[in-house]
Amino acid sequence: MISDKLDKIIKNFGTYIAAIKEEKGERTILVKPEAHKELLRFLRYDEEMSYDMLIDLCGVDYLGENPRFEVVYLLRSMRDGDRLRVKVRLNGEDEIETVSDLWRAADWLERETYDMFGIRFRNHPDLRRILLSDDFSGHPLRKDFPAEGFDFDKPFEVKLEEEI
Amino acid sequence: METTFMTINMGPQHPATHGVLRLLLELDGETIVKATPHIGYLHRGVEKLGETRTYHQALVFTDRLDYTNGLSNNLAYCLAIEKLADIEIPKRAQYIRVILCELQRIAAHLLWLGTHALDLGAMTVLFYAFREREKVLDIIEYITGARLTPSFMRIGGVARDVDSEFVKKVKEFVNEFPKRIDEYETLLTENIIWKKRTVGIGVISKEEAISYGVTGPVLRASGVYYDVRKAHPYSSYEDFDFFVPLGKNGDVYDRYLVRMQELRQSNRIISQAIEGIPEGPFKANAPQVVLPEKDDVQTDIAALIRQFKIAQGGFRPEKAEVYASVEAPKGELGFYIVSDGSEKPFRFRIRPPSFLNLSALPRMIEGQMVADVIATIGSIDIVLGEIDR
């Protein structure tokens, strides 16, 4: 049953699928960015697939590799009870089509991914920062963002009013 | 006649928002037209911090996510790393984990019950619920040494073995607790004021709940059968006989009923686990990955060296990616770990249940009264430590 699904995905999207792997009991599909929205739409709405819950969506930063960013979707079918991970490597630019019209859950998850990685989701209804403040600069989960500030262990300098 | 909407701020310092949640409410009289949650006040960068520590060191961050639920958070993280490192957990450790997680679920649900009822004006329930919560926390403190942030699970098992005193305490509690749930229910379940405040409030339909990624009691109150303990069993949950309570209407009252039933089911699981707890080791036999026992560390120089080597230097799992999740009191708590073969996680992603449950809040409260916002927030049972990470 589960492998039937995989066959059907391959039949429909064969040329756009970069890799399929199964390790530690988890199935992952790596899809090319040009077809990622169509594949996810197919997984969401097709009778046989019915992956109706988006459990998680997150970014991964492979600094130094090209393309650099990866977006990971973890889907679950409520009817069949199986999980499927779909990954997509972004093409050059840090932009990808939103899936918030397919799953409402993607709304906040994409906002978080934008906040943390600076990946912009095209046609997202409200792409703002969600966890950090609007005036924050940089995207902290990028690998080139330092985990500690350069002066984090220095004492904070206190000046009296007269000295300023 | 011309009318304008009024915009008011609820929170972030509001006792009924259960933490630093800020809601921007647009009101037409007393009716909510639009609600915009603002979160992030408690952001500590746990996902970034996790990438800078070895696998054993990163464990302590997990307690601080949903701070009412330290043990389940520990377990979710440990399950992910154990999957990554291919470690088989002994049955005794699995049973200890189940007992502790279910005790923690009872404590978390009792905190929810007390504060939720308090928000809606039923102050007595708080004292009843905290009476039992105190007993649960005493048991947890007895075995883990901490009430709030136990950090008791270890990759490969648990930190120490349980003794007969622990078993006695748990048995006492389990025998007494169903009577206590009856007490709470006499206060609320058929209470006319309680029902007026909760029935038909904050409704979310089955399809919408799934689309919003809502999990846990909120999803089950909408009538969707999804419990990670049944759907993707972990830590020997398949050994225990329990059922998953479901609601019908997806309103605040059904969420209340579902959680009350869950208390009874958790109690059942604990009583089965404590009776059937097998003999054997409480840690996996994988010396390259699992920390040595504490008693050995204090007496044996080789164990002491190994402790430092593994905790500070870390171990190197294979290059892989794993997702493991548990049924936390709030919903599905998952860890997605990407390993690049080094001592530290390459990506340390936490899938927090409250984050997605909260994202459905505007949908639940639009068109309702301001007072219903309080009821709905309470019924979702959010913890901002986990939402903001």
Can you give keywords for this protein?
heterodimer, A: 164 residues, B: 389 residues, alpha+beta, Cytochrome-c3 Hydrogenase, chain B, three-stranded antiparallel β-sheet, 17 helices, 13% strand
Structure commentary:
The complex is a heterodimer of chains A (164) and B (389). Chain A is α/β, with parallel strands linked by helices and 164 residues long. Chain A has helices at 2-13, 36-45, 106-117; strands at 17-23, 26-31, 53-61, 69-76, 83-89, 95-97, 120-122. Chain A is elongated and about 75 Å long. The model of chain A has no long low-confidence stretch (mean pLDDT 84). Chain B is of the alpha+beta class. Chain B has two domains: 6-38, no CATH class; 46-387, Cytochrome-c3 Hydrogenase, chain B (Orthogonal Bundle). Chain B contains 17 helices and eight strands. In chain B, helix 3 packs antiparallel against helix 4 and helix 4 runs antiparallel to helix 5 (123-144). The chains are: A alpha/beta (164), B alpha+beta (389). Chain A binds chain B through residues 23-24, 26, 28, 52-56, 58, 60-61, 72, 74, 78, 81, 83, 85, 103-105, 107-109, 112, 116, 129-133, 140-141, 145, 147, and chain B through 39-40, 43, 45, 47-49, 51-52, 83-84, 86, 208, 210-213, 224, 226, 231-232, 320-323, 325, 332, 334, 336, 338, 346-347, 349, 351, 355-356, 359-360, 363, 388-389.
Chain-averaged pLDDT of chain B? 88
| Class of secondary structure makeup of chain A | alpha/beta
Q: In whole angstroms, how far apart are the ends of chain B?
A: 47 Å
Strand percentage of chain A lies at 25-35%
Sequence-ordered SSE layout with sheet pairings:
The complex is a heterodimer of chains A (164) and B (389).
Chain A: H1 2-13, E1 17-23, E2 26-31, H2 36-45, E3 53-61, E4 69-76, E5 83-89, E6 95-97, H3 106-117, E7 120-122
Chain B: E1 6-10, E2 22-28, E3 31-38, H1 46-50, H2 59-63, H3 70-85, H4 91-119, H5 123-144, E4 153-154, E5 157-158, H6 164-188, H7 192-198, H8 206-211, H9 217-221, H10 228-231, H11 252-275, H12 294-299, H13 301-313, E6 320-328, E7 331-339, E8 345-351, H14 353-359, H15 361-365, H16 370-380, H17 384-388
